[in-house]
Amino acid sequence: MGKLGYIFRCIAHMDYGALFQTVGDCHDKSGKNRVWLFADVVKCGFKFGAGYKDYSLLEFYNMNDAQRATFVTRGVNNTIVRRLNNPEYYHLVDNKNEFYEFFNEYLHRGWLHFSTCSKEEFLAFMEGREQIIAKPSDLCCGQGVEKLKVADFDSLDALYDYLKGSGADLIEDVVVQHPAMAKIYPGSVNTIRVYTVRPEDGEPHVIYACIRMGNSDRPVDNINAGGMYAVVDLETGKIAGPACDKEFHVYERHPRSGTELPGYQIPMWDKVMNLCHAAAAKIPGMGYVGWDVAITEDGPLFIEANNLPGHDAFPQMPSQAPDHIGFKPQFEKYLGKL
C-alpha cells in the first residue's frame, strides 16, 4: 500500500488548477493534444510516481516508458526515503538545534539556541561579533534565514527584540567561504549538496554531489529560492558541466560573477568526501541523507542535512540528460531494483 497510498494522498491534496496549467504549458511546448497530455500525466503518476511538476520539468512528454522508468521522480525518491530512513530519527535533522548538537564537531562555528537562551546569554554570545545568521527551527529551502548586522540596530537590546519578534530559533556565526567558492558567486555561501546512501549492509556511499549557487539578492543558494545547480564529478571535484535552474535556463558562466563553471575545481574535495562519509556512518536510522557542505579556508563544514533530499537536483533536466536516461540506475547499483 506504500506506493498506492502515496499516489492517493497526492490526488487528495493536488492543486488541480496548477495541474491543468501544467498540461497547457506542456501543450504549448510540445504541440501535443491536451487530452492526451492530461491522460499521460495521470498515467505517469501511477506508473512512475511522477507528479505533474516532474512531468513538465523532465519533459516526460518527449519520452517513452522505458526512458521514463530510469528517472528519479518524486514518488521514487519517497520510496528510497521510506526504505532507508526511520522516521523516529528525523528529529536529528529536522530540528536544527538537535542537528547542531549531534554534529557539533562538524560545524566549526559558534552558535546559540536563541529561542531558549536568556538575554544575558545572548549578550555574552554577541561580544566581539559584528554580524550573525538567524534561522528558524523547522523551515527549509532558505526560508526565514536572515543575515543581520549589529550596526543596523540601535543597540544589542534592539537586535534581541527583533530576533524575538521574528521567531528566530538559532543564531550563529556567518560562514566565510573559501575564496575559490566566493569567486563563483560572492552573494551567497555556495554549498555542495552531497547525497549519501547507506543500504542494509551498513556501508555508506556518496552517490551524487552538486554545487548550489545563489543567483538573487537573497543570501541563500537554494534552487527553490532562485538559485542554480551544477553536477560535481565525484572523483575530481570539478564542476562537470553547465549549471541550470528550475526555469530551464542553462549557464556556462555564472550570470552575476561571470565565472566559467564547467571544469571549475572545488577546493578541498577529498575533505568534503571524508566529512560526509563520517557523518553518514555516524547518524543512526538514516540511510539516505542530503548534506549541505560549505567550504572555508579552514576546511569543509555542515550547514544542515536533509532526511528528504530533493530529487530536483539530480542531473535529469533535459539539458543534462539528452539521451533521456535518468539517475535511478545509480541508486539501483546499491539498492537493487526500485
Integer count of domains: 3
Uncertain stretches? none
Beta-strand portion reads 15-25%
Helix share bin = 25-40%
GO molecular function, one term: ATP binding
Pfam family, one: ATPgrasp_ST
InterPro entries: ATP_grasp_subdomain_1, RimK-rel_E_lig_ATP-grasp
Organism: Collinsella acetigenes
Short description:
With 338 residues, the protein is an alpha+beta fold. It is built from 13 helices and 11 strands.
Give the tags.
338 residues, alpha+beta, D-amino Acid Aminotransferase, Chain A, domain 1, Dna Ligase, domain 1, 5-stranded antiparallel beta sheet, 4-stranded antiparallel beta sheet, 11 strands, 36% helix, ATP_grasp_subdomain_1
How would you describe the overall organization of this protein?
One of its GO terms (molecular function) is ATP binding. The protein has helices at about 1-10, 15-30, 35-50, 50-55, 65-70, 75-85, 90-95, 95-100, 120-125, 155-165, 180-185, 270-280, 330-335; strands spanning about 110-115, 130-135, 145-150, 170, 190-195, 205-215, 230, 245, 250, 290-295, 300-305. The chain is of the alpha+beta class and about 350 residues long. It has three domains: about 1-70, no CATH class; about 90-100 and about 175-320 and about 330-335, D-amino Acid Aminotransferase, Chain A, domain 1, CATH 3.30.470.20; about 110-170, ATP-grasp fold, A domain (Dna Ligase, domain 1), CATH 3.30.1490. The strands form three sheets. It has a five-stranded antiparallel beta sheet with strand order 7-6-5-10-11. A four-stranded antiparallel beta sheet has the order 1-4-2-3, covered by helices on one side. Helix 2 packs across helix 3 (about 35-50). The mean pLDDT is about 90.
